[in-house]
Amino acid sequence: MTPTPRSNSRGGSSGASKKARSQGAGGKGAGAKGAAKPARSAAPKSRAFGRERFGQSLGPVKNNPPERNSVKRAAAQDVHDPDGIRLQKLMAQAGVASRRVCEEMIAEGRVEVDGQIVTELGLRVDPKTAAVSVDGIRLQLKENMIYLVFNKPKGVVSTMDDPEGRKNISDFLKNKYANERLFHVGRLDQATEGLLLLTNDGELANRLTHPKYEVPKTYLVQTKGPMESGISNQLKRGVELEDGVTKVDSFKLVDSTPGHVLVEVVLHSGKNRIVRRLFDAVGYPVERLVRLQVGPIRLGDQKQGTIRVLGNQEVGHLLASVGL
User: Fold this and answer.
1) CB atoms within 10 A of CB 164
2) Which helix (H) or strand (E) holds 276?
3) How many Å apart are CA 267 and CA 269, to the nearest integer?
4) Is 226 found in the same domain as 264?
5) Hey, which bits of the chain come out as E strands?
6) Please, which residues have CB within 8 angstroms of residue 22's CB and are 6 or more apart in sequence?
7) Which residues lie closer than 8 Å to 227 by C-beta, 6 or more apart?
8) Nearest 5°: CA angle at 243, between 241 and 245?
């Protein structure tokens, strides 16, 4: 698999802007005296979570709030809490940006508190009860919440403890998480590798696995080749299994070598061993299976057997994907 390149966190226009300044009034190539000066382009907006290592290429926030779609927005309410924390300080503590940049974001109307856009710099909020979003990204303000990504190797069972003594998730957790009650979001069978989310956020874990939120999951499948034409359409139309018809959302041939093909499929079903059963049903048993992505969270080039902490931006996108 080709590692996903990380996007550059710094703007790439510095060279162009220097060149533009060198050609301005007074420089070679300047227009006639009195000619109108070119208008300055607006300064780019400061990016939230710009210093984070992970999650810089997640794209626009995709909100998925099924139970809220039919509910009209309530009338504007006073979100100020005189005993709370200043909003810009709270944002800075959550890793959005420096306090000064957070003040600019508030003034630009990019911050919401409890669903309302706020522009007052003196606003105070209660971090225990307020829902704060920046550019649509929900901030997780509870300091005790844990969000991890585990790249599960083959042969590891998706449990925190195994009575048979097989290698399990807890064997890879560092000591600082030993006393935490972590949920693994969904399961990967013992032979399947790849992305497994771990968290102590029970509501998030519950929503990510609930079928009504239709959280997409991306898998890389190795099977025998060459593959007959029509298999892709068959999987996208739907295959009758013992527990009903299931289909993939997308199907893409990634690579082929003599006797084997590599296919990327996306589906939102969370049924047990669903990818293996689908490929068995169309006559192409899975030889190797890796989960690459759950919702907006990607495995990228994370090494197998390692665990990393999700960035704040990743957490915000994950919460938005299930309407939190």
Assistant:
1) 7
2) helix 274-281
3) 6
4) yes
5) 85-86, 111-113, 116-118, 124-125, 132-134, 137-138, 147-152, 183-185, 193-199, 217-224, 239-241, 244-246, 250-257, 260-267, 286-294, 297-298, 307-309
6) none
7) 253, 261, 263, 284
8) 50
DSSP string, 138-157: EP---TT--EEEEEEPTT-B
Pull the structure tokens for residue 208. 């990510």
The count of domains in the chain is: 3
Decide if 311 contacts 52 (C-beta within 8 A).
yes
CA atoms within 13 A on the CB side of 150: 30
Which two three-digit tokens encode residue 132? 């704060």
- pLDDT tens digits for range 129-152: 888 999 888 898 888 899 999 999
Domain that holds residue 233: 216-294
Q: Could you tell me the pTM of the whole model? A: 0.77
Q: Which CATH number goes with the domain that contains 155?
A: 3.30.70.580
Active centre residues (catalytic): 189
Tens digit of each residue's pLDDT (9 = 90 or more) over 208-257: 988 888 899 999 999 998 999 899 999 999 999 998 999 999 999 999 99
Longest dimension (CA), the chain: 86
Together in a domain, 85 and 103: yes
- Structure-block tokens of residue 216: 């997409």
